[in-house]
Design goal:
By secondary structure, the chain is α/β, with parallel strands linked by helices. It has 17 helices and 18 strands. α3 packs across α5 (78-93), α8 (170-184) packs parallel to α9 (198-205) and α10 runs parallel beside α13.
Length: 448
């Protein structure tokens, strides 16, 4: 019995996850029998002739009096396209079966609406991180989204007689491998991420001891505690939803490793890493620091490339004479929200919309601020000249960008038409007035 307990202790969560993945009812490679049809469907749903034209024209176009500068890297990443393809293929490959998904596939309304239309059942959230899996029946199909699923959810599904289609982005799995290394080395995982975000929820489920920091302010609180200690109760109260059960900062911040949610702002993650290194060196000295701190970059390439591209737009905003920058992507999308932060922090007028309908025919725009508020305000300030930069998050199809730009083109055309009609009406009125005066003069002459 004691030997069995020891063997159980030696099996890590990663090892158990790999065991689940070896099941013949666990799918990660998709389904070739339906792939051609799915590829055609995705092209029809997501392809954009306008975006293709922008890319072939050095990422700039002038249309209907509007000049558009497209960021050099934008939109769908490989991981998102892969996730969508796997989910669509699963629906087609298992006709007649009930298909569930544990969360939104990605943070994009069009894609998730399409899954609803395909009769995919979204597992109900019950609050406090719990979900209603009771509706998942024997023989059903369950899709794991691009963000991944928690260890507990994977364990539950492994115990059921269901087919599991895992669309988890490989970059997310890379983070899970990193936190697994942390626990093997006896480290507490410091995760730069939002503790309530689906990806971070999944990542923390593979940790033993962890604390999540969402920004530099919270990272500074942790670094200060590492160096100086502090009010333990106040510290735990502040981070109560962002730490592992039984977390003790006095003992668990002695040896730490850094990981991050893949969609976070990379420059901030690097700055947090430098902050933690300095704190550890200050606490333990430069010689012992290597035994107390471990770091591995887990920001995905696509996130970094899109951030670099909007940085380029921001740096050239004056020379391009940009009126504003439009960021298109789901309002729940972390990587899209971080794209907005870049022009906002540079003082450039910018808007984050989740779909084209956010741009109203009355020249208003409904958008998400960096504080997470949804507000509506006047949109185009100078209708005579409209020059904009545009980008989109890694979970945003090109078609969403095209639809959003089309709304702007339409606004400009309506304005131009109204100016022409107003000018024509004014000219007609002036002409009628002149004609009236001439008739009156002629009448007076005739009477005399």
């Amino acid at each position: 019995m004691s030997t069995e307990v020891e063997e159980t202790k030696k099996t890590t969560k990663k090892e158990k996850r790999l065991q689940y993945m070896k099941s013949p009812s666990f799918y990660r490679q998709g389904f070739k029998d339906v792939r051609p049809a799915v590829e055609k469907s995705m092209e029809e749903q997501f392809k954009s002739p306008l975006v293709d034209e922008l890319k072939s024209n050095n990422f700039v176009i002038e249309k209907d009096g509007v000049t558009v500068h497209l960021a050099k890297d934008f939109g769908f990443c490989w991981g998102v396209e892969r996730s969508i393809a796997l989910a669509y293929e699963a629906v087609e490959h298992f006709p007649g079966k009930t298909v569930h998904i544990t969360n939104e596939l990605i943070h994009n309304p069009e894609v998730n609406d399409r899954l609803h239309d395909m009769n995919v059942q979204f597992i109900e959230k019950l609050g406090e991180g719990k979900k209603d899996f009771d509706k998942v029946g024997e023989g059903d199909v369950v899709i794991l989204p691009a963000f991944g699923a928690s260890f507990e959810e994977m364990s539950l599904l492994n115990s059921k007689n269901v087919d599991v289609v895992d669309t988890t982005c490989p970059w997310v799995s890379k983070v899970w491998n990193t936190v697994d290394n942390h626990q093997r080395k006896g480290l507490t995982s410091i995760i730069h991420g939002k503790y309530g975000h689906e990806e971070t929820v999944a990542t923390t489920s593979f940790c033993e001891d962890y604390i999540c920091v969402k920004d530099m302010k919270e990272a500074e609180m942790v670094a200060d505690y590492i160096v100086n200690g502090g009010d333990k109760d106040a510290f735990l109260k502040y981070f109560e939803k962002a730490v592992s059960k039984g977390f003790d900062p006095d003992t668990m911040l002695q040896k730490v490793g850094l990981a991050n949610q893949t969609t976070m702002y990379k420059k901030e993650t690097r700055a947090i890493g430098q902050l933690m290194q300095k704190a550890i060196i200050k606490k333990f000295g430069p010689v012992q620091a290597k035994d107390h701190y471990w770091e591995f970059d887990t920001i995905c390439d696509a996130t970094q490339e899109r951030q670099d591209a909007i940085h380029e737009l921001v740096e050239n905003a004056d020379s391009l004479d940009l009126d504003f920058i439009l960021v298109v992507g789901g309002w729940d999308s972390s990587n899209t929200a971080h794209l907005l932060e870049i022009p906002q922090k540079a003082g450039i007028r910018s808007f984050h919309i989740n779909k084209a309908d956010c741009i109203g025919a009355d020249n208003t725009i409904t958008h998400r601020t960096i504080k997470g508020e949804i507000v509506t305000e006047k949109f185009l300030e100078d209708m005579d000249k409209v020059v904009l930069g545009v980008t989109s998050g890694a979970s945003t199809p090109d078609k969403a960008v095209q639809d959003s730009l089309s709304q702007i083109f339409l606004l400009k055309k309506r304005y131009t038409k109204s100016i022409v009609e107003a000018t024509s009406a004014l000219e007609t009125n002036e002409y009628n007035q002149k004609c009236g005066k001439r008739r009156l003069q002629n009448s007076r002459i005739a009477q005399s």
